[in-house]
Structure formats: structure tokens, C-alpha cells
Amino acid sequence: MTVKIPFNKDFEVPYGVLETIEPGIRRITAHNPGPFTFRGTGTYILGYGDVAVIDPGPDQPEHVDAIIDALGTERVSHILVTHTHNDHSPAAKALKAKTGAPTYGFGPHGSGKVKKATGVEAGGDMDFIPDEVVKDGSLIEGSDWLVSCLHTPGHTSNHLCFCWDSKKILFPGDQVMGWSTSIVSPPDGDMGDYMRSLEKMLMRDDEIYYPAHGPLIKNPKEMVKAFINHRREREEKILLCLGLGIETINDMVPKVYSDVSQELYGAAARSLFATVIYLVETGRIIPREDVTINGSYELST
Fold it and tell me: What is the CA radius of gyration of the chain?
């Protein structure tokens, strides 16, 4: 039986407009819609007066200007970055230049893989270096808000969620979204880390997620469980392919991702490769030669 994830794609946003989501939380959305960003990157504003900005967004001067104009006399005191993909962190530089606010993040792109001496994929913001390096459990406090940091590697190795614990609200960036699953693209993306991060999120008691793309998630535990089961189902499909003699990732993609349009097969192949690496690491399959996206694989005996 195919795992059904309770996605909600009935979501429209006004670009460049500061929306009140609930007391103390506002959002302004960048005009960068696309197959991986949905309606665009949602930049969240925490608090009033002296505020924090979560994920300032892509390198779009008009988006930075919209943030500044919408806040008026309010002051940006903190810039928080969930991760360093090009739709999330590049605007931090311009926003910092305009406001003087320091940036907070786990580290530069690929920093979560430094100990593994692993390279990083294209598509990352290689220029972002946080002024303040935070880690799992770090606290960041403003005048009327306090968030803790949850390191959730997988989508990227430096991915963070920001948790407003007193409100039981979590800002998951791209770790869990309400409209789609997340891309996990090696070498910086890591499926084993991603699965462990999902399990970590299940241990929490958050009641609402506000992702960077798409609508809020009111049933976070149900959604996270569905994401885990969905990835497990992908694993089983790969094992089934290998049992049928389908041994390469390119040949597996149409079988494993039969629910995905062909224009997304390239991204699907990267995500499938991440799962293959995870299956090799856990001993369920073995490579015929090297572990590469173009390699051949077989079931462990």
C-alpha cells in the first residue's frame, strides 16, 4: 500500500506583503516560486519592535527592500538561517548591511560534513558564514521571543530548525514541509542523517510547524511519521528493483518514482542515490564496484 502523506497544496500568498500569522509571528514571501520552492520562500518575523528574521531568502534586492519597508520603524536585531541553499540564506548579506543585525547559523555550507571530509553539491550558498555559530540546543533570545536550535542534518548537513518552545511552535525550514517531501542530495545531503533527524523531531511535543515553503502543519507528528514511512517505502521499492535485476539508479527511477513527473527525474535520481548510500551503509545492499550515482548495485546475501 502506498503511503499517503497529508499534503496541502491549497496555499496562496501575496508577495512582498507582511502577513500576521499569529501573535508574535509574521511572514513575508519572496517572489521565487518554482518546482522546489512551491509559492516561494517564506521569511518569518518573530516579535515586535526588535525582531528576528528567519530565512531572509534568495538574492533578490526587492525582497530585502520589502522586508525593510514592511517593518517600518521596527529594528531587525537577529537574522536566523535554517540552512544555506540559495533560496534561504543569500539575502542575509544585504539585510545585515541594511540593518547591522548579526547572522546566526550552524555554519557555512557543508559544515556538518567537515568531520567526514565530504564535499558539497552545487546549489549551495558558499558565501554565507554566520556571525554567531549555534549548535543543537543553543538558545537565541530577543526582547519578546526565545528560540532553541535543533540541528536536523539531512536535507543539508548544516540544517537547523528553530523552536519557540513556550508556544510549542517549530520553524522546520525545509526539513518537513506541508506541500512536498524534501530533496536529499548527496554528498552534503545525507539520507541516514535525514531519517535520524525525523526520528529526533518525533521526540518533541511541538503542535505547529511553520515551514519555509507552503502552509503551516497542524498535525506535525502525523506528518513526520508519514515522511518516515514514505522513505521506508522508497527503500523497499529499491530492494524490490534489485530483486528483479534492475541494478542502476537511472533504471530504478521510473519504477521507484512512478508518482513523479519526468522533468523531476534528475532530482529524483539524486534522492534515490541518497537512499542507496543509506542502504549500503546499513548493509542491505552492496555496490558492484564504487558507490556512485552511475554504479550498479545488488542485494546483500
Answer: 19
> What is the C-alpha separation between 239 and 179, in angstroms, rounded?
27
Q: How many residues does the chain have?
A: 301
Task: List the beta strands (DSSP E) in 81-192.
Answer: 103-105, 132-133, 139-141, 146-151, 160-164, 169-171
DSSP H helices, 29-115, are 61-71, 91-99
Give all strands of the β-sheet with 208-209 in edge-to-edge order: 139-141, 146-151, 160-164, 169-171, 208-209
pLDDT at 264 over 90: no
Q: What are the sequence ranges of the domains in the chain?
A: 19-227, 231-299
Measured between alpha carbons, how far is 250 from 272 in angstroms, rounded to an integer?
9
Looking at the predicted structure, is the pLDDT value of residue 104 above 60? yes
Q: Using alpha carbons, select from 124, 147, 123 the residue that is nearest to residue 136.
A: 147
CATH superfamily of the 19-227 domain = Ribonuclease Z/Hydroxyacylglutathione hydrolase-like (3.60.15.10)
- Asked if 25 and 6 count as a contact pair (C-beta separation under 8 A), the reply is no
- The predicted model gives 200-219 an average pLDDT of 97
Whether pTM > 0.90 for this model: the answer is: yes
DSSP line for 185-230: -TTTS-HHHHHHHHHHHHTS---EE--SSSS-BS-HHHHHHHHHHH
| pLDDT higher than threshold 80 for residue 146 | yes
pLDDT in tens, 239-262: 999 999 999 999 999 999 988 888
